[in-house]
Design a protein that fits this description.
alpha/beta; nucleic acid conformation isomerase activity; seven-stranded mixed β-sheet; globular; seven-stranded parallel β-sheet; ATP-binding; single chain; Rossmann fold; 5 domains
Length: about 1000
């Protein structure tokens, strides 16, 4: 096969390998020149002869008039350029796949005559059952003439004459290759209106950007950020090794083409894996990610073959799109005999979220069980229906059905071990149950796999981060410093007040201490402590989060503390906050404060949840206790302020509230821990094998850190105790709460130690561990725990602690270190080696100048020349003398760095609001050392030119550019600038306004 290609890294590394792979996968290669022979003109995007042949071949029952009619209904002229691109794309897809829905989504139908007279026939444009009955063509450098200029997409895939896929290839040596493909040169231009390329987008199914080593996919609504997090990283059913064997390489490009563009997969994705939704008043197009396509394909196979209730477990980490996956599984199920589907959750919020996904994604008649009677109606007559319900409603019904029902259970690790699960199983004994979970359980007492069957598909934390489906989570521990007001300790206060209570016994007093005085949750509700934390949250959020457009959640330990947080944030005039929690009218806190001010009805809560996730909503901080910790999808949330003891799956689910991508600047989620849950994190992660939870949490050798903490906690129980005297040990552990705490800490320590024994760092703990084992056995043999009820004393003890505890500032347990441009020189000064300092400053200065060059080329080009001069002189002298080192070089480069950093300050001093104005000013100052004159000219130019740049793609509109050039000439000429200089300045000024240099 001879390919007509050019030369260069882009061709050799990306375009040519892609063509070779596609041909080996069964696509027919046709060069641009040969393909143009099949077209009447280069403004056409369809290959009409191939499309007509496909219609005749796939619909043999149609006569020639029917074929011609069908062709006319999909012809380009039926869709004027003036139509909305997304709306037209959605309508054309309905015709391509034979979809019939409301809103103008209808298939192609033609009139045909048979023995009964004139009948309507639905026309198929693709043969989805017999893939080889379709015509697959690949071409490169395809020419499409627009209204003025042509475009040449690198690769286009045609199926039956319809351009379904556009691939843009870039050199792997370009740093910003994806931005160039999506925003700067290619897709942005193709998708823009008014250029004459719209019809190519009308028919488009998938956009692919690749540089060989990396590859991303998107749709006509995807921006660079969305492309970035769309990596097709598995070629199911092929393994990576099989891709390597078949195609000679297994880079991201080969994997994407093998997995996504395999002929049957491409048509399957077109027919079954597309969703159009409206988000933030904008219509968007969504296509399945690789893990969704893979999992749904496996589920469909299970639906066809499984002969018992256990469909299987879909283990996809939080934030990977399980709601969409469930939607596509439901769609597959309906194709196998119109099977009824029921989606089960254990939280109202999840129920609503999934219902919204289904209805927006093409299931407009999906029902939601608001009452148990709705569930009963479904069970009585389920055929062909889709229902959303919470599992609790099954406990309220008694009827059963023998129908085969597809049961999709969300958060399957949580709800399947109680009476609701049994009632559900009883109501649908012939159901096929699929469990969806980001954190499945596999323990002796509880096992998601025992309930739902074998693992169907797994998409782990690390893989989702690599794909961009989720982002890393960073952890910072911050605990309030606490002290007791007055001379008495809490124990003394307790003895004085509780000890004098009638009927108080020593045993009951010890039990009360253990359950309330020493409990962290009780101390956590102390008002003075919450005041200090609220102030810290307000400062942190205002200084670090607010201005970037993100939001936050506070997880409070109780409803009382949630209200305290709300009141305190209001008092200090923090950014607007709102409580969402279970509450009734008339509820009163322990302090007697009525909570009605914060009461929300169920509908108000739902509205508050929906609004909070939008940037327009004024609420910046959401305060919760238990609600919204699971299933609440809020990508705008950047930070979770945690002041509650969460454990195991609940903890992993909660922290996942911040792992959703939002925009290109949200590169990580943040957990600020005021409660001290480091140990709980370790416990949560130990539920899984190390491979399963790899990437869930980012800490440097966190297990050794936790081991050290657990060892310290356990040994603290023996502080001041003579361990050689058994009697002293027994006396020291006489209080029951001390024994309980010792037992809990010992178990945590021994469990982590056991898991880390292979590391040499653990040997120091072995002697202590052996001794602790002996002491533990001694105590277990000696004592038994009391079982007295203590609930009636809870409020009294809480008041003692509230009155006694005072918060004394916040201490940072784990201090994150980030080197910014502003603190860089201070950071460098800590290095002792002058050579190391010079190298660091040089590299950082190069980075600053390159990042800002496009904003102000005149200013930064000058700095770049100065820097290069210093570096080159230094290189020359080192060539002559390897030992040469000039200590002044460091200072000279530092001065350039300071100048690069001082640009903003100088811009403000001169009164320029934008960097564009400052760039023009610097440009003028190169030949004119009159500040006042340059400022005046700059202001006049910006006043005339800036309004023109608000027009979309103004740089492609010759009329606007001509108008701008005339304005530049008039203004510069009025200030007596020479005509030769005006021509040079005009080009540079327009380039400054066109920042992307398109």
């Amino acid at each position: 096969m001879t390919f007509v290609v050019g030369k260069g890294a882009e061709i050799e590394q990306s375009e040519l390998p892609a063509l070779e792979q596609l041909v080996s996968m069964g696509y027919q290669y046709i060069s641009k020149n040969d393909l143009n022979k099949e077209r009447k003109k280069t403004t056409e995007v369809l290959l009409y002869d191939r499309l007509q042949q496909a219609i005749s071949r796939i619909n043999p029952e149609l006569d020639s008039d029917g074929v011609a009619d069908a062709l006319n209904q999909i012809r380009e002229d039926s869709f004027p350029f003036s139509l909305d691109t997304m709306e037209t794309n959605e309508k054309i897809r309905a015709k391509l796949i034979g979809l019939s829905q409301t809103g103008g989504l209808e298939p192609i139908t033609v009139d045909q005559i048979d023995e009964s007279g004139v009948v309507k026939k639905t026309v198929k444009l693709f043969d989805f059952d017999n893939i080889d009955n379709n015509d697959f063509v690949v071409t490169n450098q395809f020419e499409l003439q627009g209204f003025k200029n042509p475009i040449y997409p690198d690769i286009i895939l045609y199926v039956n004459g319809i351009p379904l896929v556009i691939i843009e290839c870039k050199s792997p040596f370009i740093a910003q290759w994806l931005e160039e493909a999506v925003e700067q040169k290619n897709f942005r231009k193709y998708r823009s209106t008014g250029n004459g390329y719209e019809r190519l987008m009308f028919y488009n199914h998938i956009l692919v950007a690749t540089c060989g080593t990396q590859a991303r996919h998107g749709t006509i609504s995807s921006d660079t950020n969305q492309f970035e997090k769309s990596r097709w990283s598995s070629a199911y059913p092929l393994s990576i090794e099989q891709v390597e064997e078949k195609f000679g390489a297994s880079r991201e490009q080969e994997i994407l083409i093998a997995g996504m563009l395999e002929k049957s997969h491409l048509l399957d994705l077109l027919k079954n894996y597309v969703i159009y939704q409206t988000k933030n008043n904008q219509r968007i197009k969504i296509i399945a990610k690789h893990q969704q396509f893979r999992a749904v394909t496996k589920c469909a196979q299970q639906i066809k073959t499984v002969n018992n209730r256990k469909g299987g477990v879909i283990w996809h980490t939080q934030g990977s799109g399980k709601s969409y996956t469930m939607h596509w599984v439901a769609k597959q199920a309906m194709q196998y005999g119109n099977l009824p589907i029921i989606v089960v959750t254990d939280r109202r919020q999840l129920d609503k979220q999934i219902h919204d996904t289904f209805t927006q994604a093409g299931f407009p008649f999906t029902e939601q069980a608001d009452h148990s009677t709705d569930l009963e109606d479904f069970i009585k007559s389920p055929k062909g229906k889709i229902l959303m319900t919470t599992i609790q409603k099954f406990e309220e019904i008694k009827i059963t059905t023998n129908e085969k029902i597809i049961v999709l259970v969300d958060e399957a690790q949580r709800s399947q071990y109680g009476t609701g699960a049994g009632a559900m199983d009883n109501a649908m004994p012939n159901g096929i149950y699929f469990g969806f979970s980001g954190t499945p359980i596999d323990r002796e007492d509880k096992s998601t796999f025992k309930v739902f069957g074998e693992l169907i598909d797994k998409y782990g934390f690390e893989e989702s981060k690599a794909d961009g489906a989720t982002i890393p989570i960073k952890y910072v521990g911050r605990l309030p410093k606490l002290f007791v007001e007055g001379d008495e300790s809490i124990d003394e206060l307790f003895e004085r007040i509780i000890g004098s209570e009638p009927d108080m016994t020593p045993e009951l007093k010890e039990k009360l201490k253990r359950e309330y005085v020493t409990k962290k949750k009780v101390i956590a509700e102390a008002p003075q402590r919450i005041k200090k934390i609220a102030m810290d949250i307000s400062d942190h959020f205002t200084n670090n989060i607010l201005d970037n457009g993100y939001k936050a959640m506070i997880v409070a330990s109780s409803r009382d503390s949630a209200v305290q947080y709300q009141r305190e944030l209001e008092r200090i005039k923090a950014p607007p906050s709102k409580i969402i929690m279970d509450q009734k009218i008339g509820d009163v806190g322990k302090d007697g404060f009525n909570w009605d001010k914060y009461y929300l009805t169920d509908s108000q809560k739902r509205n508050a949840e929906d609004s909070f996730v939008t940037p327009e909503d004024p609420t910046k901080i959401l305060i919760v206790v238990d609600m919204l910790l699971v299933g609440f999808d809020a990508p705008i949330v950047k930070v979770l302020y945690l002041d509650k003891s969460l454990r195991e799956h609940t903890l992993l689910q909660a922290i996942a509230r911040v792992n959703r991508p939002y925009d290109e600047w949200k590169t990580e989620g943040l957990i600020i821990d005021y409660y001290g849950i480091t140990k709980n994190i370790q416990e949560a992660l130990q539920i899984f094998d190390s491979d399963d939870i790899k990437g869930a949490w980012e800490e440097d050798d966190q297990q050794l850190v936790v081991l050290k903490a657990y060892h310290s906690d356990t040994m603290n129980h023996l502080k001041g105790v003579d361990r050689s005297d058994l009697n002293k040990i027994i006396e020291a552990f006489e209080p029951a709460d001390k024994r309980d705490e010792f037992e809990e800490d010992f178990k945590k320590f021994s469990k982590v130690l056991n898991s880390q024994m292979y590391k040499k760092e653990t040997t120091q703990y072995i002697p202590d561990f052996k001794e602790l084992c002996q002491i533990r056995q001694l105590l277990r043999n000696w004592y038994e725990d009391p079982k007295t009820s203590t609930r009636k004393y809870a409020v009294m003890i809480q008041r003692i602690i509230d009155d006694a505890i005072r918060a004394k500032g916040i201490s940072e347990l784990i201090k994150p270190m980030e080197i910014t441009y502003e603190n860089f020189l201070a950071y460098v000064s800590k290095f002792k080696s002058p050579r190391a300092r010079t190298a660091l400053v040089k590299n950082k200065t190069e980075q600053v100048i390159q990042e800002n060059m496009s904003q102000d080329p005149a200013f930064y080009e000058k700095l770049w020349e100065m820097l290069m001069r210093i570096i080159n002189e230094d290189k020359k002298k080192r060539k002559m003398n390897a030992e040469y080192f000039n200590p002044e070089t460091e200072n000279e480069i530092k001065e350039i760095y300071r100048q690069a950093q001082s640009r903003k300050e100088e811009q403000k001093k001169l009164g320029f609001e934008t960097s564009i104005e400052f760039s023009i000013y610097n440009l003028l100052q190169e030949d004119n050392d009159n500040k006042e004159k340059s400022i005046k000219i700059t202001k006049q130019l910006n006043e005339k030119l800036f309004p023109e740049t608000l027009i979309v793609e103004w740089w492609n509109k010759s009329g606007i550019k001509r108008k701008m050039e005339e304005s530049i000439y008039d203004i510069l000429d009025s200030h007596n600038i020479s005509e030769d200089k005006i021509s040079e300045l005009s080009e540079k000024i327009l380039r400054i306004y066109n920042k992307d240099n398109v």
